Amino acid sequence: MAFEIESLFTIIGEAVVYFAIFLFIIAVLGSLLIGYSFKTERFIFPNFMLFSIILLETLVKALFRFVGMDDSMVDDVGIALKNKISMRKFRDTPLDKRLIFFPQCLRASACPSKLSPEGMQCINCGSCEIGQAKKSAEELGYKVFIVPGSSFIRRLVRKHKPAAILGVGCMTEVKAGLEMCEKLNLFGVGLVLEKAGCVSTVLDWDKFYEFIEFDGHA
Questions:
Q1: Cα separation of 156 and 159, whole Å?
Q2: What is the pLDDT, as a whole number, of residue 3?
Q3: In the chain, domain spans
Q4: Measuring CA to CA, how many Å separate 181 from each of 175, 187, 193?
Q5: Using CA atoms, how far apart are residues 37 and 188, in angstroms rounded to an integer?
């Protein structure tokens, strides 16, 4: 009996070791593909990369740090992959069923807008680009909100019941927003700020306009 128990523990121990080696190999292969994709902007085996990011994010980032590389590219590639996967269904969604969320930090530092239950109420004063961007997007059919935090986003999603969301924010916010969309069965895509921070952040507005204008004429 004791021998059988010892044999069982040996088998379990070997299985755990082999499984750990298997996960490590996946993490290494995923890291190599992520690094290649980040440098070339070409996605090879995208589903495998996304699987490795979702399942082994901590280990993959540790491998990047171990070789002296910036582990933020893991999030960068992960967002790009999720955008790629969601993009077709996002574009097939009627424009009036989509919401755009801008972060309030994108406003000018002296912005005169006031906070309301629908977020910051832009008066298009010309101090920043948000006013014109909001107007352009709404003319196409989008609903546009400038929000101070994720709690506003969740409340506005419950109220307006969109089918798709375009979120703008720092990498952490966009990543969390795409995860929220997955949980709510929404088609989500994200644009990451060029410069993050608490005030006067920077967005590549050409990329934003290219996105919504292409979409509006698709």
A1: 5
A2: 56
A3: 2-84, 93-216
A4: 10, 6, 19
A5: 21
**Chain segment 184-206, per-residue pLDDT in tens:** 989 999 999 988 877 778 999 99
Q: What is the pLDDT of residues 63-83, one digit of tens each?
A: 878 878 777 778 888 888 888
44 membership: H or E segment, kind and range: none
Handedness of CA 177, 182, 186, 190 (dihedral sign): positive
> Rounded to an integer, what distance in angstroms lies between the CA atom of residue 146 and that of residue 148?
7
Instruction: State pTM to two decimals.
Output: 0.78
Closest CA to 202 of 62, 107, 124: 107
Residue 8: per-residue pLDDT: 64
What is the spatial distance between Cα 184 and Cα 23, in angstroms, rounded to a whole number?
Answer: 29
Residues in CB range of 52: below 8 A, 6 or more apart: 26, 27, 29, 30, 31, 33, 34, 60
Report the chain's C-alpha Rg in angstroms. Answer: 22
DSSP state of 202: B
- What whole-number distance in Å separates Cα of residue 82 and Cα of residue 72? 16
Q: Is the dihedral of CA 92, 93, 96, 102 positive or negative?
A: negative
